[in-house]
Amino acid sequence: DRGPGAHIIMDTLCDYHNFDIQWGNHDILWMGAASGNDACIANVIRMCMRYANLATLEDGYGINLLPLATFAMDVYGDDPCSIFVPKMNFADSEYNEKTLRLITQMHKAITIIQLKLEAEIISRRPDFEMENRKLLHLIDFKRGVFVYEGKEYPLRDTN
């Protein structure tokens, strides 16, 4: 999810008779996404936006990002989304400034979607004991602060 070609590696491994894999948290996340879990899907897309790795989603898995791009442009068209700029080496980037701006907007949009989807799961499954991970309702958008355990923290992004 952080670099191009993950799908190529998986296709190559499928040609081997056997091999050992050490699964990590990102692998489990991708399996959850492949199983259709909406929160996992949003998280996978968010990670790809964070590292400007659209090729894995579009070319490797045939995922159409146009609906997310359209939504992001509509909602965040006038928003600089500066804290959502992809983490990458811009000198080596194949993306022009306009495309990077769109990826930045998509990154912000999918981040909010992911947080909302995770909050739904937490509400639906109190047995997970993850109420402390629901944080969106603690944001005071009018004042631009996040209030946690009685302390206020200024938001880095108020759009």
Automatic annotation (TrEMBL):
Keywords: Hydrolase, Manganese. One of its GO terms (biological process) is gluconeogenesis. The keyword Hydrolase applies. GO terms for molecular function: fructose 1,6-bisphosphate 1-phosphatase activity. Pfam families: FBPase_2 (PF06874). It is an enzyme of class 3 (hydrolase). Its EC number is 3.1.3.11. InterPro entries: FBPtase_class3 (IPR009164). This is Fructose-1,6-bisphosphatase. It comes from gut metagenome.
